[in-house]
């Protein structure tokens, strides 16, 4: 019989449209979750959260949470959850929830559309930040910042081919260049110039997930 897996809960990051509740399987990427322990969640600042017991109130291993943002709230919500086993061993992790207004990220006359999800996990989907329309502009500069405002990436003339942000650091961060950034919510600024010589800026949140 192998040794039991130690309790280890891991941070999560998700995204939901404005005014839209989201169910989050916060335990899916955790280790050593007990069946007879406890799960507690802090109150969010800009919405409500409810624990779903999965129809098994005495077993927390299948629990999820549902976060409902306040009406009109747009931005980043952060909550914490704590799992404890029957012996009193506890671990805490953070859930970052990005609430976005998908209707306001782009204007009708903008040639640019940024996919705000990066999942560099080798499955061939969202492996890098895809920016639709880069072939329709003359030049560009992309800057990405973490939640503390530290630049983690900067590049010019983004092309969705050999010059892309694939979740690795290239900026004045505490990580070494080419280190993969931790999962979480980031902020990008995409400055670009059209072929007509007009300067434009697109900025929004993006999030990295594994």
TrEMBL record:
It comes from Maribacter aquivivus. Pfam families: Big_9, CHU_C. This is Gliding motility-associated C-terminal domain-containing protein.
